[in-house]
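step: validate -> pass
step: tokenize input -> pass
step: predict -> running
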Amino acid sequence: MTDYKRVNLKDVDNAAAERGPGLEARFGRMHLDSDHLGVSYFRYAPGFRVPYGHRHKLQEEAYVVVSGSGRMRLDDEIIDLAQWDLVRVAPSVVRGFEAGPDGLELIVAGSDRPEEGDGELVQDFWTD
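step: predict -> pass
step: emit ->
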């Protein structure tokens, strides 16, 4: 491994392409060649709400709103998000997102996790 690695997140495959319009997800972890760090990009179309949530066994995450606005559900609490908000989420907290009228773009940084990942989807998390 070299001492640095440059990656353009928009050059990373959109992992959500098969899920249809409204969501873009680009996971940079494996492209960084890092033992301890993951960085990803998410874009939600205006008004798009992800009906499922997710949580982790070990990985703590931090979310940065780079453009737009929206809301984030954290277990049973819903918070508003604005540009440049930074939210840290403990592994066990189920989280989900809803974009505002201008959409929502996030950069997500994650800590160590097992090689195979440790995420768990929670179906029908935010459907009301």
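step: describe -> The longest strand covers residues 95-110.
step: cleanup -> pass
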